[in-house]
Amino acid sequence: MIISIASGKGGTGKTTVAVSLALSIEGEAQFLDCDVEEPNAHIFLKPEIKETRDVAIPVPEIDESRCDFCGRCAEICAYNAIAVLKDNVLTFPHSCHGCGGCSLLCPQKAITEVDKKIGVLEFGNSGNLQFAHGKLNIGEAMSPPIIRALKKFINPAMPVIIDAPPGTSCPVIEASKGSDFCVLVTEPTPFGLNDLVLAVEVLRKLAVPFGVVINRADIGDDKTELYCKKNNIPVLMRIPFEREIASLYSQGIPIVQKKKEYTRKFRDLFELIKETAIK
Amino acid sequence: MKVCVTSQGDNLDSPADPRFGRCGYFIIADAETLEFEAIKNPNVDATGGAGIKSGQLVVGKDVKAVITGKVGPNALKTLEAAGVDMIIGVSGSVRETIERHKKSDFKPSQGTDAGGRGMSKGRGQGRNR
Fold first, then answer.
1. pLDDT in tens, B70-112
2. Residue numbers in B near A76 (CB within 8 A)
3. Residues 220 through 279 of chain A touching chain B, CB cutoff 8 Å
4. Pairing with B32, which of A74, A198, B64, B113 sits 20 to 30 Å away (CA)?
5. pLDDT score recorded for residue B90
6. Long-range contacts of A190-193 (CB under 8 A, 24+ apart)
7. Alpha helices, DSSP H only, in A48-189?
């Protein structure tokens, strides 16, 4: 079963929930940290990294001796990553999404694809967890190709926890699409609710069943609970604000390691997710 | 000689536009006769690469120089590769801008005066089709 942990608003506690959930599952499981712009789960899971793989996207290289400057490639590029001038062609690899359209459609077959490295994947183990994360190179703008590469390693024979990036745009969609269930971690504040509503919209479009975990549930206002009730969104768990949780987090210590009562709570969450996903 | 001035409107008395890639209109004018053509900028809402597309548009009009307020890095690369001069400094109307630069013979701005930051609206995250 593939469970993604997303949020909308950043800083609500995705990694806390994802890490705690993964560590509470009995038996083997996979943990994929798909927040490739700033992965942080490794700080808590402390995996022993055994393998590194480069991730590259294909960008065009133009053979100007074959090119007749017809401009077809620039016309079809959806990202304006090619400029055809009077007697030369410029490419903008930074904007290129590696779709392959230009090389496919060049009438003179003047375009070849070359690999442009954009990041790495790292694989390792942490206890009974198979761990993997992606790291986007500094200066690159596109996460989805790395997230896609990471998700190729999903082993559907065991539970898979995906720690998604914050927000509701392309990286989140890439990370959460195709999951069997998504846990939306939120906080009972106006910003939290605003972004939760956006995240719900995304998941409905992706047709991924979901439920909510309210973090710092005992402070803030009641509008989030009311919203969930009104929209029949199951609230799967409520985590109170506890200074000790924040303190452990800041030291890179998973809560379930020090607060044993949370292991049972997260095991219960896992069972509840499985039940809710079936409905 | 032909110049391009970025403009907010479609005639010589329109206020000049300090932006290049996402300006309202490109005014292509003969600097001597002031005969001109106004092209509505099709790249205003591009998710990314507006400077690249606008650069290509201007290059296709065979202008000697572009007069605008600011040129982003992508537009700079495109115009430079095509040998189009960049003149930084718009003030008042398109007409006034042309007259002002005519006095200094349309002297191109030096390297770092021309280049700089684009509007960077795009994030290259793709779009719905």
1. 999 999 999 999 999 999 988 899 999 999 999 888 888 876 4
2. none
3. none
4. B113
5. 87
6. A190/A221, A190/A223, A191/A9, A192/A8, A192/A9, A192/A12, A192/A220, A192/A224, A193/A223, A193/A224, A193/A227
7. 72-76, 101-105, 144-151, 170-176
